[in-house]
Design a protein that fits this description.
It is a single chain. The chain is an all-alpha fold. It has a two-stranded antiparallel ribbon with strand order 1-2. Strand 1 and strand 2 form a beta hairpin. Helix 1 runs antiparallel to helix 2. The protein is flat and about 55 Å long. It starts with a helix and ends with a helix.
Length: 228
């Protein structure tokens, strides 16, 4: 009888020990998950804060951290592209500001000439990265059209106009030419034909006119509008 009691007591103690150990493990796992979620939320808040302040470099670092934690976060990929895109164009605007002095007939100093080259290269690097990030973002349906828009603008900046037209073709196929698109992206075209375009700048549309594919897209979009 005493042997049976001792055996049962031992089993009960072992069971309680295993249950306690399992409880501790689960609690730690929950704690790590909560910590991970908490870190993710803090990084997202930090990223959005830096976007509002136009601290593009810091925002990009935060969004890069977010996509490393969650590669399937479409918004983080898109915003990573947007922050690099904005940073790149800021650099190019600083370049253009200095170059405008030369266009106005002023002589540039050697320091200013160096800054022009630096801003051009920094802007180029940022836009190359932005295009890579947008390419990832367009895998997500919610961000596909906007990502294509930005990629096409970057291609125009690099004089990759045929690539920009290919993206514009995709833009039309995806239904990017809608009333919402009209309000957001503007229009371009000629000969009385207007179309919504991610390449809304007049200089870009003029440069694209020499490509037959441009007019094919214009005609196709005109047909689409008439059939709506």
């Amino acid at each position: 009888m005493f042997r049976r009691l001792a055996r049962d007591t031992g089993i009960l103690i072992a069971f309680c020990g295993c249950f306690y150990l399992l409880t501790v493990i689960v609690a730690r796992l929950d704690g790590n998950e909560d910590k991970s979620l908490d870190d993710f939320s803090k990084t997202r808040i930090s990223a959005d804060y830096h976007v509002r302040k136009k601290n593009w470099e810091k925002a990009a670092n935060d969004f890069l951290d977010l996509v490393r934690q969650d590669p399937f976060n479409g918004r983080a990929w898109y915003m990573l592209g947007m922050t690099s895109y904005s940073d790149g164009y800021d650099k190019l605007q600083q370049r253009d500001k200095i170059e405008s002095k030369r266009d106005a007939g002023q002589k540039l100093t050697e320091v200013e000439k160096t800054k022009i080259a630096q801003y051009r290269e920094l802007g180029r690097q940022k836009l190359v990265k932005a295009r890579e990030y947008f390419d990832s973002a367009r895998e997500f349906a919610r961000f596909r059209i906007d990502a294509i828009v930005r990629m096409s603008l970057i291609d125009c900046e690099f004089d990759e106009l045929e690539s920009a037209l290919d993206l514009l073709d995709d833009f039309v196929d995806l239904g990017g030419v809608t009333q919402a698109g009209l309000d957001r992206y503007g229009q371009f075209g000629s000969g009385g034909t207007k179309m919504v375009s991610p390449l809304a700048q007049p200089d870009e549309s003029t440069r694209l006119h020499k490509y037959p594919k441009f007019w094919e897209i214009v005609r196709r979009e005109k047909d689409n509008k008439e059939n709506r």
